[in-house]
Amino acid sequence: MKWKYVIFFCALAVMAFCFIKIVYPIINISSVYPPMKEYNFSLTTDKLANEIIKISNNDTNINYKITDTTGTSNDNLKYYADINLKNDSTLYSYNFFYIKLDKTHSKIGLVGAFDKTHKFGGYQNDSKDMQNLIAIFENKFIDRINSNQH
Asked: Among 121, 33, 50, which residue's Cα sits nearest to residue 85?
């Protein structure tokens, strides 16, 4: 009688393992998309963060918030942030990260772009609408960082 339970639970464990091994990658429970676009700067991450804060503080149509950090040391952190841009009556929301490339260079990676007013957007640059959202991010945000670098 005892062996029946052991065999039954072993069979259940094997089926659960196979289910997770096959179904988990298919449904992308925890998939992470690569950045839609990346932007390099001749700024340290501290100077880049200061530029972003300065732009946000000087423009009431821009709201910036750090959402997370990852890394093992203060010298090598990856910062995740959201920025909301208001353009006329439309609200745009962007998810991005910034990270140190070397002692004098950093990078922003655009991860998500959304038009909150018209309720569309996503994490992949796969349509003309997404390209338009990326262009707004570049024109209203990235270009301002670049103009302050010089």
From this structure: 121
Backbone angles phi, psi at 57, to 5 degrees: -70, -30
Q: Is the full-model pTM beyond 0.85?
A: no
Instruction: Give the chain as a 3 state SS string.
Output: CHHHHHHHHHHHHHHHHHHHHHHHHHHCCCCCCCCCEEEEECCCHHHHHHHHHHHHHHCCCEEEEEEEEECCCHHHCEEEEEEEEEECCEEEEEEEEEEEEECCEEEEEEEEEEECCCCEEECCCCCHHHHHHHHHHHHHHHHHHHHHHC
- What tokens appear for 143 in the block? 């270009």
Strand partners for 82:
65, 95
Label the pairing between strands 78-87 and 62-70: antiparallel
Ranges of the chain whose pLDDT falls below 50 = 28, 30
Measured from the Cβ of residue 72, the count of other Cβ atoms closer than 10 Å reads: 7
Q: Which two tokens stand for residue 57?
A: 């503080």
In whole angstroms, what is the distance from residue 1 CA to residue 117 CA?
A: 63
